[in-house]
Amino acid sequence: MTFFDRRNPHQESHSADRAGWLRAAVLGANDGLVSIASLMVGIAASGASTSAVVTGGLAGLSAGAMSMAAGEYVSVSSQVDVETADRAKEQRELAENPEAELAELTAIYRARGVPQDLARQVALALHEADPLQAHLRDELGQSEHTAAKPLQAALASAASFLMGGLVPFLGLLAGTATARLWLIVAVTLLGLAGAGVLAARAAGTGVLRPTLRVVLGGGLAMAITAAVGQIADVSGV
Ligand SMILES: [Zn+2]
């Protein structure tokens, strides 16, 4: 349950930010679809009763949502800690050695291709306006709208996992045990295809290949878990 991109989830520009958010939601939903469907298919393939399948699915749903929320909360919180520490360090440096900080900012603009004189002018002007913001933004890449929000990230993760994880339950509408198993597989593959199309749209890429990838991957995951379920049944575990 680690489909969220934890390397760098909060350092994208404005429009990319929204795409990143949608992408994270789609991946969370994918995660819910595949893990809950696999769980239910695995339990069903072991020959267990429908109530065992439902119980397993519900337990997986809450476990997965909690795990996603907790994992995301911890990960984003540590990002906030890093940002807070960086901000305090910058504040201290600006208070203790403003000249060195000015030179540092000038060097940053120089490195981006701004001529020395102009770089110095820009750095001076920004130091007069709001030196801390200038350093946080141009030195550390922090800004208001990229600030990490742990609770929001945790809730979004859990919600997208739940949205995906509820889809396999539609399979329970079928009449017989075998039909239920196949309907779970079918609605899950459909859900994955839908999520794949959304993800491709968000990324602005072609639709067919990423969708096929996600559908085949999900199908494989369910097949493997079903096989494990059957082995468990045969061995009488
Ligand atoms: Zn600095």
TrEMBL record:
InterPro entries: Ccc1_fam
Keyword tags: Membrane, Transmembrane, Transmembrane helix
Transmembrane region(s): 153-175, 181-200, 212-232
Protein's membrane topology: Multi-pass membrane protein
Main location: membrane
Protein's cellular compartments: Endomembrane system
Family matches, as CDD domains: Nodulin-21_like_1 (cd02432)
Entry keyword DNA repair: no
Cross-referenced PANTHER family: FE(2+)/MN(2+) TRANSPORTER PCL1
Protein name according to UniProt: VIT1/CCC1 family predicted Fe2+/Mn2+ transporter
